[in-house]
Amino acid sequence: MIVGLDARDIRFPTSRHMHGSDAMNPDPDYSCAYVTLKMSAGEQSGNGLTFTIGRGNDLCVAAIEGLGSHLIGRSLDEFEEDLGLVSRLLLNDSQYRWLGPEKGVVHLAAAALINAVWDALAKRAGKPLWRYVSDMSPKRIVSAIDFRHIADYLPYEEALERLTEQQAGKAVRIETLMRDGYPAYTTSAGWIGYTDEEIVRRLKAAYAEGWRHFKIKVGGDLQGDLARCKLFRDTLGSEVQLSVDANQVWNVAEAVKAIKAMAPYDIYWVEEPTSPDDVLGHKAIADQVSPILLATGEHAHNRVMFKQFLQAQAIGFCQIDACRLAGVNEVIAVMMMADKAGIPVCPHAGGVGLCEYVQHLSMIDYVCISGTMEGRVIEHAAHLHQHFRNPIEIREGRYVAPITPGYSVDLWPQSIADHEFPHGKEWATEMAS
């Protein structure tokens, strides 16, 4: 039984070295609102987090503490029996919901709590989260989805039918996943605050490690963006894949102009070319820059927004975020809608714990939903993994399937102590100055 919770404001000073910098967010301090569900004696705790980039992390902590009261006194047996219960408890609090609804700080907080429950369930089952879900029957998986507001696009019966179709090949796909891992791309070489020399050094090092798909940040001045693309191709040639990320800075006309100018550099996708809320803007851009495809989703608030992007054929890649959406339940719903649309799921990661999270989600998509890795990659950023008990493992540009029970976001106690804001040792000196 859940007898209490502990929510912490954990921040890492990544802005000191420009890690994570992009055209919209020049000085991020990668952070997480981190929650531990305290269990009755003998039961293993569940951990969850939601990702922010510094200021405002405290707001997520406060929302976790407020929403978390709905979980106190509930047993894991209840959540095991009814996989949709945790979402209903947290997302249907009408007074908190008013602050969204189903978006913003409250939705981020709900994600941390929902993911913590799934973490506890997977640990109790003795399985990594991806395998815990993969071993479920189609009816069990579908029961986790809230079809309200999406049934016009993805009815319950259709979702169940698709999962049932994919049952036959599950065992083979699990075997393939355990042997080969899951393809990935890296963002760590191309942050916008890096010098050209630093980018070249990091590109060469990443190539030597086996990476063959890279993403660089754009969205400064256009000539600078073109110079970055040229620098990339001059460094690694034409046999590797290049994606670019504008982080929302362009309007529609600017995006079309910039993407057409970058087209000669063989761009795999252009990420967040304009406002993440502008479905029709993405559609207008996509129509004008084809065959270059757009990717978005790390700031898409909920399943309804993804439904509209997919219905409008406005994106070529669906970038789910493990914390922007309300945890595992809502992610499964979005992955199923993307599968119906024929759009590859390529999760947003980086940050704190997002890589640890989304490896499980892509593997669930492969084993249970889409049945393919074709055109799919998981984002990778090589920062902060040492703070987790069970960090991601990468081999030759692919995620190795995790085998430790849970959802992979257990932070080391010392990392929590050192980075808790504002009194951890990483912050105490700065706050005193």
Q: What's this model, at a glance?
A:
This protein has 18 helices and 12 strands. The chain has helices at residues 57-67, 76-81, 85-91, 94-97, 104-125, 129-134, 138-142, 156-165, 170-180, 196-208, 222-236, 252-262, 279-289, 303-311, 327-341, 354-369, 413-419, 425-432, and strands at 2-11, 31-39, 46-52, 182-186, 213-217, 241-245, 267-271, 293-296, 317-318, 378-380, 394-395, 398-399. The strands form 3 sheets. The chain has a 5-stranded parallel β-sheet, with helices on one face. A 4-stranded mixed β-sheet has the order 10-4-12-11, covered by helices on one side.
Q: C-alpha Rg, in Å?
A: 21 Å
With strands numbered from the N-terminus, the spatial order across the biggest sheet is: 5-6-7-8-9
Class computed from helices, strands and strand pairing: alpha/beta
Based on Cα principal axes, name the global outline. globular
The amount of helix comes to 40-55%
Number of helices: 18
Distance between the termini: 44 Å
Q: Which segments are poorly predicted (pLDDT under 50) over 5 or more consecutive residues? A: none
